[in-house]
């Protein structure tokens, strides 16, 4: 549990430090931090409520040929399992690769936020600890989607579609993010409309065989995703904040169209959490980067005299969130505590 608090508190304290590093020192710290986070998330051992399910996927890939990869529901994740089994790295090789994608995508996304450390602290409880260690495929898809969001901000249609396509290889439900490409220039233009439409049509064929699986797994069932309501509530709160300060946001930042679309989606799908919690939770996960940026930028949107109280309130809220989850969630108690890692578990894969 100390590790989880350290992951959260260190960037929080760094965000409040008056000292500023030169560019070289900053890059070196970013690289070191990225390696450490990849180590913590990627080499975890028996951590996360889906650990056994992912082990079953790995065992299935371990005894299969390459045909298994190209016929899998998520071929990107299947390929990592297949390749890691052939290389002898075990499930840890898969998790390390997925963690590296998540951390890289997150860092590239954080570079565009006004305060890197503040946004990292906000991202730690839910995205890094909860999803990064508990939902490997979705976490990897989120890593690619954060790169896609950067491409959207840069108005790069092909790059945006490419990163969304990579996300789909790890979780097909992320295919819905092909649709925002139509609005990448702030309005409906022929080129993004045609290209986005073709890609979405192709992905719909790709998704066809998995449609029944997702429907029976996530919609109209008694499945209740762990943490679905809190995650949805945080997204809804963030979306409300965005629309309240939208005018100031548009004046200060150049990614207003992206956040308008995503915040609108959050509010539109809010009622669905009552009857399709698991399906809504999947979308809430993908929209977490939007939530992170909104909370991180909120202090710059409020009057100067309120900035410090707002920052402290944000940190207090996420501290309570992490405390409540660690001490009162049965999932955290059974699947995250104690934290285990390959380096001291004794289960070193044969190389």
Explain what the structure shows:
This protein is mainly alpha-helical and 351 residues long. The chain has one domain (24-206, 224-336). Helices cover 73% and strands 0% of the residues. The protein is globular and about 60 Å long. The two termini are 31 Å apart.
Percentage of residues in DSSP E strands: under 5%
What's the helix count? 18
Structural class: mainly alpha
Poorly predicted runs of 5 or more residues: 203-224
Instruction: Please compute the radius of gyration using only Cα atoms.
Output: 20 Å
Q: Outline, from the CA principal axes? A: globular
Query: What does the main sheet amount to?
Result: none
Helicity level: over 70%
The average pLDDT is 84
What would you say about this model in short?
By secondary structure, the protein is mostly helical. Helix content is 73%, strand content 0%. Residues 203-224 have low confidence and may be disordered.
Key descriptive features of the protein:
single chain, 351 residues, mainly alpha, globular
Write the layout of secondary structure elements.
Blueprint lengths: L1 H14 L7 H20 L8 H12 L3 H5 L4 H13 L2 H21 L5 H19 L1 H18 L3 H12 L21 H29 L9 H17 L1 H7 L3 H13 L8 H10 L1 H14 L5 H22 L1 H6 L6 H4 L6
Helix pairs in contact: 1-7, 2-6, 3-5, 5-6, 6-7, 6-8, 7-8, 7-15, 7-16, 8-9, 10-14, 11-13, 11-14, 11-15, 15-16
């Amino acid at each position: 549990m100390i590790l989880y608090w350290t992951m959260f508190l260190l960037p929080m304290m760094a965000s409040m430090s008056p000292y500023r590093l030169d560019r070289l020192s900053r890059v070196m710290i970013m690289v070191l931090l990225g390696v450490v986070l990849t180590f913590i998330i990627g080499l975890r051992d028996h951590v996360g409520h889906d650990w056994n399910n992912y082990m079953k996927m790995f065992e299935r890939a371990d005894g299969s040929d390459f045909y298994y990869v190209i016929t899998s529901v998520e071929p990107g994740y299947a390929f990592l399992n297949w390749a890691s089994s052939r290389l002898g790295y075990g499930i840890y090789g898969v998790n390390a690769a997925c963690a590296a994608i998540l951390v890289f995508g997150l860092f590239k996304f954080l570079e565009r936020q006004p305060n890197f450390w503040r946004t990292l602290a906000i991202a730690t409880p839910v995205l890094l600890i909860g999803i990064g260690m508990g939902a490997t495929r979705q976490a990897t898809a989120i890593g690619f989607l954060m790169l896609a969001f950067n491409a959207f901000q840069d108005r790069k249609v092909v790059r945006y579609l490419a990163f969304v396509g990579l996300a789909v290889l790890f979780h097909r439900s992320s295919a819905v993010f092909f649709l925002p490409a139509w609005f990448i220039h702030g309005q409906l233009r022929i080129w993004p409309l045609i290209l986005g439409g073709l890609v979405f049509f192709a992905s719909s064929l790709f998704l066809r065989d998995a449609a029944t699986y997702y429907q029976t797994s996530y919609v109209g069932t008694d499945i209740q995703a762990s943490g679905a309501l809190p995650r949805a509530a945080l997204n809804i709160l963030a979306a409300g904040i965005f629309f309240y300060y939208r005018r100031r946001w548009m004046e200060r930042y150049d990614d207003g169209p992206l956040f308008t679309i995503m915040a609108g989606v959050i509010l539109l799908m809010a009622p669905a959490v009552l009857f399709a919690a698991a399906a809504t939770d999947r979308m809430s996960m993908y929209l977490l980067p939007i939530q992170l940026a909104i909370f991180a930028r909120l202090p710059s949107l409020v009057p100067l005299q309120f900035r410090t109280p707002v920052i402290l309130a944000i940190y207090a809220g996420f501290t309570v969130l992490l405390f409540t989850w660690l001490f009162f969630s049965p999932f955290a108690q059974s699947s995250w505590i104690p934290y285990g890692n390959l380096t001291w578990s004794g289960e070193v894969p044969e190389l």
